[in-house]
Amino acid sequence: MGDLSIAERFGIDDFQLVLLRRMADHRPELVDDALRTLGATHTQLREAHKRWQARVHSRSFPGGARRYLTALGRPEAELARQVGDLACRALLWPVPLWPTLRFEILMAPGGAVWNEWLVRAPGDPGPRLGAVADLPVWGCTVEEVLRGYPSAVPLVGDAPSRARVGLADPASGEAFTAHFTWGLLQYVTPQQAGRTGGPRDSFVP
User: Fold this and answer.
1) Which of 32-36, 55-59, 76-80, 144-148 shows the lowest per-residue confidence on average (mean pLDDT)?
2) DSSP state, residue 141
3) In what side-by-side order are the strands of the sheet with 153-155?
4) Dihedral Cα 106, 16, 96, 185, nearest 10 deg
5) Looking at CB atoms within 10 Å, which of 110, 120, 169, 177 has the fewest?
6) Residue-wise pLDDT tens digits, 140-162
7) In what helix (H) or strand (E) does residue 27 lie, and over which residues does it extend?
8) What are the phi and psi torsion angles at 53 (to 5°)?
9) How confident is the model at residue 17 (pLDDT cuts 50, 70, 90)?
10) 170-177 long-range CB contacts below 8 Å, 24 or more apart?
11) Are 144 and 100 in contact (CB under 8 A)?
12) How would you write 148-177 as a 3-class SS string?
């Protein structure tokens, strides 16, 4: 019954606060603007995050797609996705804070959710990508950067819900790392010369 009460109280605004909670580590000024748009406080942000984590770690609360259906309702779209040899299924929901994006979960055969992040809405052209240093913060996704730059390669993420992409500027050849939270760009840093690491933990153009 306790888990059911959590489900009844949790909606799209709460879920957007969960997304913002992770982004606040890097873009607090943008999160503050978003909170004003939602009419929410930092206390409500932390509480939403706490309740979502309780759902994720509860043994009795539904897993897989049902966890998201209880919070977000019926998905706007359900698409077939081929990932290597796997025929996967993607569910997409609108997120009012980012009207040109969708929150996507990707499910493997059998129903296990193995990826969750923000993607470009079907039919939206997305940003025009140019110089790497000018990539739009909160304006482009992991998928768009990987598609938009021939040099782009995924790197190992440094925390849950975070991803990194190594890439070289098309004009200068300078190496950068683009940092994402929930699939949305947060910031870009020049890659330090002489950095070493594993094949997916460093990038050399």
Assistant:
1) 55-59
2) B
3) 153-155, 162-168, 175-181, 184-190
4) -70
5) 110
6) 999 999 999 999 999 998 888 99
7) none
8) -65, -35
9) very high
10) 170/130, 170/131, 170/132, 171/131, 173/205, 174/132, 175/203, 175/204, 175/205, 176/132, 176/133, 177/203
11) no
12) HCCCCEEECCCCCCEEEEEEECCCCCCEEE
pTM of the entire structure? 0.87
Contact 76, 35 (CB under 8 A): no
Tokens of 6: 């959590």
Both tokens assigned to 102: 């969708």
Question: What are the CA-CA distances from residue 52 to residues 7, 17, 94, 148, 192 (Å)?
Answer: 10, 10, 18, 33, 36
Q: Which residue, 62, 123, 113, 110, is CA-closest to 91? A: 113
Could you tell me the CA-to-CA distances from 158 to 88, 104, 132, 144 in Å, in that order?
A: 26, 21, 21, 20
Q: Which two tokens stand for residue 86?
A: 């796997």
How distant, in Å, are the alpha carbons of 92, 116, 133, 197 from that of 201?
30, 21, 20, 5
- The structure tokens listed for 118 are 């923000």
Joined tokens for residue 97: 């804070």
Report pLDDT for 57: 85
Q: How confident is the model at residue 19 (pLDDT cuts 50, 70, 90)?
A: very high
